[in-house]
Specification:
With about 280 residues, the chain is α/β, with parallel strands linked by helices. Helices cover about 35% and strands about 20% of the residues. It is globular, with a radius of gyration of 18 Å.
C-alpha cells in the first residue's frame, strides 16, 4: 500500500498522495472493445483532467458543495474523472446506467432540488426528452467520450459541450473550506457516502482484496454500484494499484489482455471458482 495513503481522508487527498508518490506511472487505462480504443492516463494526467473538470463545474456551471450531479455515463475513464472532480468540489454524484435511460427506466431524481446532468452523446437525445432526468436539471452537459477529446457531433439546444469547454479551465483546483471529509459526495444503491466513508470503504476493500502498489486490476463493472466505484477507482487509489476499465468487454480478448497489461487482479468477469464477478487474484 502507498506509504502516504493512510494519511488521506478524502478521495481528492488520495489522488494528491498518488501524484506526489508516482506521478508518471499509469493510474487508469481504458479499453472499449467495440471501437478498439485504448487510453492510458498517468496519475498526473488524470489529476489535470480532474482539476479542469472541477473548475468547469464550479466556475462554469456555478456548482456548490451539496449540488447533485447525475452522471448518465458508461464505464469510462471520463466517468472516473467526473466522479473525482465532483468529489473534490463537494458535489454529490449519482451514476445512472445509460442503458436504463434508453429503456425509459430511469428512477426519479430529487426533483425539488435542481441538479446537473452529465450524459454520454449516445444517450443525450434520450436524456433531453426524458422528463424524469431533464425536468429538474439546472444544466445538461454532453460528453462525446471521443478518444481524442473531440466535441459532440451534434449538440442539442440548451446542452453544454464538455469537450469544447473543459480545456479552457485551469489544471489546478482548490476546494473551499466548506468541503471536508464529512461532506456527502456520492449516492449509490440508495445510500449516501461522505468522502471519508468512501475512503474508509476503499481501504477496507483494498485490504480484503490484498491490493498493493504492484497490482494492476482489470475491471468490467458499472459505476452504478459501490463495488464498481471501489474496484474501478477508489481502492486502486487507496492501495497504490492501477486500474484497467473495460467497456463493451469482449471476453475473447481476456487472456491476451491479461498478459499484455500485466494484470494481477480481475473484477467483473466470473472467476474460476466464483460466478459473482468478485475480484480474484490471478495465479
Amino acid at each position: 500500500m502507498s506509504a502516504h495513503a493512510g494519511e488521506a481522508a478524502t478521495p481528492a487527498e488520495l489522488l494528491r498522495r498518488r501524484v506526489a508518490d508516482d506521478p508518471s506511472r499509469p493510474l487508469v487505462t481504458f479499453y472499449d472493445d467495440a471501437s478498439g480504443e485504448r487510453v492510458e492516463l498517468s496519475a498526473r494526467t488524470f489529476e489535470n483532467w480532474v482539476a479542469k473538470t472541477a473548475n468547469f463545474l464550479v466556475d462554469g456551471l456555478a456548482a456548490e458543495p451539496g449540488t447533485r450531479v447525475v452522471l448518465v455515463l458508461p464505464p469510462h475513464w471520463q466517468t472516473a474523472v467526473w466522479l473525482m472532480a465532483c468529489w473534490s468540489a463537494g458535489l454529490i454524484t449519482e451514476v445512472v446506467d445509460p442503458e436504463t435511460v434508453k429503456r425509459g427506466g430511469a428512477e426519479p431524481i430529487r426533483v425539488s432540488d435542481p441538479y446537473i446532468v452529465a450524459a454520454a452523446q449516445e444517450v443525450l437525445d434520450d436524456v433531453v426528452t426524458d422528463e424524469t432526468l431533464a425536468g429538474g436539471a439546472e444544466e445538461i452537459v454532453g460528453l462525446s467520450l471521443h478518444a481524442l477529446g473531440g466535441p459532440l457531433t451534434d449538440c442539442p439546444p440548451g446542452v453544454t459541450d464538455y469537450a469544447a469547454e473543459v480545456r479552457t479551465y485551469g489544471d489546478r483546483f482548490v476546494p473551499g473550506p466548506e468541503v471536508t471529509p464529512g461532506t456527502p459526495v456520492m449516492t449509490v444503491t440508495k445510500a449516501t457516502f461522505t468522502g471519508a466513508e468512501l475512503v474508509g470503504a476503499a481501504r477496507a476493500a483494498a485490504e480484503k482484496w490484498e491490493l498493493d502498489a504492484r497490482d494492476r486490476i482489470l475491471v468490467d463493472m458499472s459505476f452504478t454500484t459501490l463495488d464498481g466505484v471501489l474496484t474501478g477507482l477508489i481502492a486502486p487509489l487507496a492501495s497504490g494499484a492501477s486500474v484497467i476499465i473495460q467497456r463493451n468487454f469482449d471476453k475473447a480478448t481476456l487472456d491476451r489482455r491479461l498478459t499484455l497489461e500485466h494484470v494481477t487482479v480481475v473484477a467483473g468477469p466470473p472467476g474460476p471458482n466464483d460466478e459473482s464477478g468478485s475480484p480474484y487474484r490471478l495465479p
